[in-house]
Each structure stands twice: as structure tokens, then as C-alpha cells.
């Protein structure tokens, strides 16, 4: 199976490292659903697209399988409807530390339209030029407090949140989330902002709030607690596992979708439908996503027809995790060549101007940033370094590769020591 990159080099994706891991994860989800009485699974866009295709093949070999659905959503689509103006948890979401901050940026992250933004700036006496000026975190917080203490601006924002919340709730009703059926969402995981937002939106209605359950590959160390998210289950239960620390590789290389990010909802006659963001990915990336989905679906179909899989499921699962980890930890130049044109955006804006390569040759300045980012004051410098450090080291010159490998080793050792301390406590 071959696809072509933008520079016309023929590359062959290493699906053999990816497919066993995804199939093992989805089979685990189906098994856990049965154990926990889950009757309906909602695979959340976009990472859930390929997982849904796998599940559709595997349920053929399952007794009383759960109903499978695709749920359009994202951190951005569910943030605004979940905001509670009398609480401050959402401040950091609209003034993230890894983006340039400005009054206009804050208003844009609240998904306000151009007219509302103009009215707010006028009410606050801020010119368009001033609205684009970079702000410190404390100044950004002051802007939000001013927005919430100025009656007109607070009303505009409140009305906007209520409108978006009504659309989201109607979409969730339409998709059956308020039915008296035990359900769970399925996603890749990590901090669990999406499930927390979903739970807040569902809890804001007059209906009996359904139990919010979620299945995930894994959690980051700073995952949100269950009293905010609802019940959660992890394929790799250890918070801060290696794969959770390489989330960008999982999301872009393992679970890409063939459609853009959902950024909200709108009415289309009697239905509520998703609104998609502009597609920032190159044609090559979309072609890769389609080929991967096709390959994994076909492999899942073969697995489903094989009796040997169910007999050796536990062994298969452990091996699949090790293969995926080895691929990310020790990638060869040939294995990563299929991903050379893949770009990522780490911030909530999904601004195409902020696209960074998943990996690239490292320079001395990158090493300096990696070392400095270990200090809290300079932690933000890590955002300008490629997410896939192991792949970047592979294609860097020998001295840089050796230094980067040592830094990665120390980082892994630090996580192991932290885990050891947590276990002792």
C-alpha cells in the first residue's frame, strides 16, 4: 500500500505498528462495555472515527454487542457551551499559556462573531490595534474580569454561551444521550477536558443528568478527577504512561480522521448538525488518514473471522502495546518517512499559521530550549520543539542525536522516579 508525499517521494506507511494496537484497544473497550453494562458507545470525533470502523468489524464476534454511534464534538465545540460564568476554571482555556495572548485572542477563543467582538471592544474603549497587543497572563485575567463586570459585555457573552449550549443540548438529545440507556464515550484520552465539558453541559439541563462514562487509551498525570468527568476507564491504567506523553503521535499517526475538526453546531431544518473548521491539513495527510482507516478496517475484519484471536487475546494485547511503544521510542528513518509532511497544531485556535512539523532535524537552539524548559519559568519553550523527539533525533546529526537521546532518557527516568514516589505515598 503506497501513497505519495508532497515532495513526490514514494513512501510506505508502517501500519503494522499501528493496527494491532488500535484493534487491541477497541476489543478491550467492547469487553469492558459488556462487564460494566454499557449498552451504547459514542465514538467521539475525530480520533473516534477509525476506532468506530474497527468496532463495527469486531462486534460481529460479540454476544449482545453495544450500539455504536459517531458523536461529533471536540474540546473547542464543547468548551463554550460548558462555561459557567460564576466560576474561573475556564479562564486558562481562553488564555492558554502556549499562545500569544491578547484581548482579541480571548474574544476569538470564546467563539464570538465579528459583530459581538466589535461591540465589546467599543464598550471597553479598546481600539482594534490595542486589542491585538500581547498581554501577560495577569493582564489577560484582568480583561476577563472586566468583561464579566461590565453589564453589556457580560450580557453579550452570556447570551452567546446560552445559544451554543442550547444547540449542543439539542444535538445530544437528538443523538440519544438523554435516553435511559447506559452509555459511554470512546476517545484517545489524556487530560479528559472533553468528558468534563460534556458532563457540565448535560448537568445544566432540567433533565435527569445521565451518568457520563468514558473509555480511553490512557490518562496524563494531570488528568481531571472523576468528580469533574464522571466514570472513566483506561486501556493503559497508569497515569502519565509513555504513550500518554506522546499523545500527539497517537492522535496524528494512529487515529487521524478524514474530516476537519468540529467547532460547534447549527440547525439544518429539523436536525442539529456539526460545524467544521477549515481543513488545515495537506492532501497527503488526508490521503494517509483514508488509507490507514481502510487498512485497519480490513485487518479488523480478518481478526474478527479468526478463532485464534479470542484464544490469545491477552497475549496479543500486551504485544500490541509493546510494538506501538517500540515504534515511537526507536523509530527508523524508513518507518517515519511516511509522516514527514504531517503537521500539528497544539493550541485550541487551530490557526493554520501555528502548524508545526511532527518531527524535524534538531538544532543546538532546540537542545537549549529542551534543557531550559525543565524550569517552570521557561516551560513554554518546549512548545517550539517538535512533539516527536525520538523521530527528530533519528534524522539529526550524530552529536545532536546523542544529546537528545540522553535528555529523553533522563526525562523517562524522572517520570519513573515520580511514579515511585507516588506509589510510596
Question: Could you explain the architecture of this structure?
Answer:
It is a single chain. The chain is of the alpha/beta class and about 425 residues long. Helices cover about 50% and strands about 10% of the residues. Strands 3, 4, 5, 6, 7 and 8 form a six-stranded parallel sheet that branches. Strands 1-2 form a two-stranded antiparallel ribbon. β1 and β2 form a beta hairpin. α1 packs across α16. It starts with a strand and ends with a helix.
Question: Which helices and strands appear, and what pairs or packs with what?
Answer:
Layout: E1 3-4, E2 10-11, H1 19-35, E3 40-44, H2 48-58, E4 67-71, H3 75-82, H4 91-94, H5 103-109, H6 114-124, H7 128-131, H8 137-149, H9 151-174, E5 183-186, E6 189-190, H10 193-203, E7 213-219, H11 226-229, E8 231-236, H12 242-245, H13 247-254, E9 262-268, E10 271-276, H14 283-304, H15 307-311, H16 313-329, H17 333-336, E11 343-344, E12 356-357, H18 364-372, H19 389-394, H20 398-424
Parallel strand pairs: 3-4, 3-5, 5-7, 6-7, 7-8
Antiparallel strand pairs: 1-2, 9-10, 11-12
Helix pairs in contact: 1-2, 1-16, 2-14, 3-9, 3-10, 18-20
Amino acid at each position: 500500500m503506497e501513497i505519495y508525499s508532497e515532495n513526490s517521494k514514494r513512501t510506505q506507511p508502517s501500519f503494522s505498528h499501528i493496527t494491532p494496537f488500535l484493534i487491541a484497544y477497541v476489543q478491550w473497550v467492547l469487553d469492558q462495555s459488556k462487564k460494566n453494562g454499557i449498552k451504547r458507545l459514542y465514538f467521539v470525533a475525530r480520533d473516534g472515527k477509525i476506532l468506530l470502523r474497527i468496532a463495527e468489524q469486531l462486534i460481529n464476534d460479540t454476544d449482545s454487542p453495544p450500539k455504536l454511534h459517531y458523536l461529533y464534538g471536540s474540546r473547542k465545540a464543547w468548551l463554550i457551551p460548558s462555561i459557567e460564568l460564576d466560576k474561573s476554571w475556564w479562564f486558562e482555556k481562553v488564555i492558554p499559556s502556549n499562545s500569544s495572548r491578547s484581548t482579541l485572542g480571548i474574544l476569538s477563543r470564546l467563539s464570538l462573531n465579528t459583530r459581538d467582538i466589535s461591540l465589546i471592544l467599543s464598550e471597553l474603549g479598546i481600539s482594534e490595534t490595542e486589542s491585538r497587543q500581547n498581554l501577560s497572563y495577569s493582564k489577560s485575567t484582568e480583561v476577563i474580569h472586566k468583561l464579566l463586570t461590565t453589564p453589556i459585555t457580560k450580557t453579550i457573552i452570556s447570551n452567546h454561551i446560552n445559544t451554543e449550549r442550547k444547540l449542543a443540548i439539542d444535538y445530544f438529545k437528538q443523538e440519544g444521550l438523554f435516553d435511559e440507556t447506559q452509555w459511554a464515550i470512546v476517545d484517545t484520552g489524556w487530560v479528559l477536558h472533553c468528558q468534563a465539558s460534556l458532563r457540565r453541559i448535560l448537568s445544566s439541563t432540567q433533565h435527569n443528568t445521565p451518568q457520563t462514562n468514558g473509555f480511553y487509551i490512557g490518562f496524563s498525570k494531570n488528568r481531571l478527577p472523576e468528580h469533574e468527568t464522571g466514570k472513566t476507564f483506561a486501556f493503559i491504567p497508569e497515569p502519565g504512561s509513555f504513550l500518554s506523553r506522546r499523545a500527539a503521535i497517537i492522535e496524528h499517526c494512529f487515529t487521524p480522521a478524514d474530516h476537519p475538526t468540529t467547532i460547534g453546531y447549527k440547525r439544518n431544518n429539523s436536525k442539529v448538525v456539526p460545524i467544521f473548521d477549515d481543513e488545515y491539513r495537506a492532501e497527503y495527510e488526508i490521503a494517509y488518514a483514508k488509507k490507514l482507516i481502510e487498512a485497519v478496517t480490513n485487518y479488523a475484519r480478518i481478526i474478527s473471522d479468526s478463532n485464534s484471536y479470542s484464544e490469545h487475546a491477552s497475549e496479543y494485547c500486551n504485544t500490541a502495546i509493546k510494538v506501538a511503544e517500540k515504534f515511537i521510542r526507536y523509530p527508523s528513518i524508513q518507518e517515519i518517512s511516511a509522516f514527514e509532511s504531517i503537521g500539528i497544531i497544539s493550541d485550541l485556535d487551530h490557526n493554520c499559521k501555528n502548524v508545526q512539523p511532527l518531527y524535524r532535524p534538531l538544532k543546538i537552539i532546540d537542545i537549549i530550549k529542551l534543557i531550559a524548559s525543565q524550569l517552570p519559568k521557561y516551560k513554554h519553550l518546549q512548545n517550539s520543539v517538535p512533539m516527536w523527539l525520538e523521530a527528530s533525533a533519528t534524522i539529526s546529526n550524530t552529536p545532536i542525536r546523542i544529546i537528545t537521546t540522553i535528555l529523553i532518557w533522563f526525562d523517562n527516568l524522572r517520570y519513573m522516579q515520580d511514579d515511585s514516589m507516588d506509589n510510596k505515598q
